[in-house]
Amino acid sequence: MSCSVFAATPQYGGTLTTVPGVGLAPPSAMNGFNPLLTSSAYDSEAEGLMYQPLLWINRQFKIDYGLSVARAIVVGPEHRTFTIRLSKGWKWSDGVPVTAADVAYTYHMILRLGPKFPGYASGGIPGEVAALTVVNPYEIRVVTKRPVNPTWFELSGLNQLVPYPAQVWNKYSVNQMVEQMTNLNFFQVVDGPFRLESFHPGRYVSMVPNRRFSGPDKPYIHRVIFRFIHSPASVFFALKSGTIQLGNLPAPLYPARHQLKGDRLFTTGPPWGFNYLGFDFDNPHIAFVRDPLVRQAMMHAINQDLFIRILGYGHGVRAFGLVPGVPPTFLSPEAKSLLSQGAYDPALADELLGRAGWRMGPHGIRIKDGHRLAFTLYLPPGTIRGPTLLAEMLAKVGIEVRMREKPFNEIFAQISDPSNRHWQAVYLAWSQSAYPTGGSIFKCGGTQNNYHYCSKKMDALSDKIRIQPGLQALYRFQNYFTEQQPVIVLPNMKIFVEAALQLHGLSRAFSPLGGFNPQFIWISRG
């Protein structure tokens, strides 16, 4: 990340207007604010400002206890006991201390919600837990059913136990909480740097500082507004008119960045996750995706360097697996080698499709048993360039892609509906946890597995990540994933962000995990 304008003394005050997804993804709307019930990255952006994490993960993928509610984790000698000690300095905005009871409340709500909890089963919560005990007001002990990989369990499991205000929320049933998803009164007690001020469905959310925030970085700005702008191009014109002061510059408009006179450009990312072409493995009309040879052929048919050159103007990195390449903290040696060499090989793609029984038809589309090698791709607004390029590459090896643009919320609703077997393919992205295993997205019957992919071998390799210390189990899992391509992984682009010249502190505002932290931003005047 780079940032060029500097002013020596931070100032308080001012309003920052931006969009949901800034520094992370194309813009969309926020639809709810209960982190126990929402899974959208856009909703999580607001939720993360209201509730301080139990464990703050820094840029080196280590726990920063200075910004965490926890002050230490003591791991038992057999890697089965994790004693979490809380700092005594954190308080809710109503003056009540943040205690172990709030962490225990979150855990018991996860048990109560079951698969309705967005991160259910990710990081071993609650499946790996034999018992969670409140030792005293500032200490919780978690005992696992078997020895676990401590790094994985802390970064992907315990990290989910964000404390929520038990003294307020425990009076509500789950159904009542669902009904309160956008009720501002429900969310007035917070321990994060901001609280909700107003929500106007379809228009914007405004947040103001939590004046009783007990953390070390109290917000400088007096208000942050997230305007709901539904196309990347509209973000450009909002930046140009000054309607917003911070937003992603759409890559197609990168050459027009000089038109934004009062702004400066910096890059962030790539996001900690992966872009992908995903399929519904249960849809009989595209049964061909169940054949690994077809999926491998797609991987070799995609010229990732061309993707990066055209879509990201050279600002991006190749990606063939679910573990991000930047930074390369968790990459296997095989993944590093593949990333350096690339995988583009259309001749090999042709060979693989031939071995799978697909022969070139009269119109350049492959045919097998009277069926065309074709699928319909849903894509969010403003992303047409990537799928168009993808379709052209796949067409060269005889695969037809039909594109349908739909709002992100509609796509997400369709693929997450377990009874919907009508969709075929999607062009989306997935955010990773700090320990990048993909969570339950590829696990047989996983709560986040909207693609109905199932591999017993992949599940077994994933399970070993949970119990074996070190990175070797993760290496074996990611290598098998790359070989199988349960989704076709696409290159990961850096994100261009435009900021008004008056904004400062941006280098701390965007985390490597895709979080947006406006408490570090201040606005100069005069």
Tell how many strands the DSSP assignment holds. 23
Counting copies of identical and different chains, the oligomeric state is: single chain
Percentage beta strand: 15-25%
Helix/strand-derived category reads: alpha+beta
Q: How far is the N terminus from the C terminus?
A: 26 Å
> Could you list the spans in which at least 5 consecutive residues all have pLDDT below 50?
1-6
- If helices are DSSP runs of H or I spanning 4 or more residues, what is the number of helices? 15
> The biggest beta sheet, please?
5 strands, mixed
Question: Roughly what is the average pLDDT, rounded to an integer?
Answer: 93
| General shape | globular
Structural overview:
The structure is a single chain. The protein is α+β, with helices and mostly antiparallel strands. It has 15 helices and 23 strands. It has helices spanning 41-50, 100-113, 150-157, 166-169, 174-179, 232-241, 292-301, 304-311, 333-341, 346-355, 385-395, 408-415, 456-467, 472-484, 506-509, and strands at residues 15-18, 70-75, 81-86, 129-136, 139-144, 194-200, 204-209, 223-227, 246-248, 263-268, 273-279, 316-317, 359-360, 366-368, 371-372, 374-379, 400-405, 425-431, 488-490, 492-493, 495-500, 503-504, 522-523. Strand 14 and strand 15 (371-372) form a beta hairpin. The longest helix has 14 residues, at 100-113. The protein is globular, with a radius of gyration of 23 Å. The two termini are 26 Å apart. Mean pLDDT is 93; it is low at 1-6.
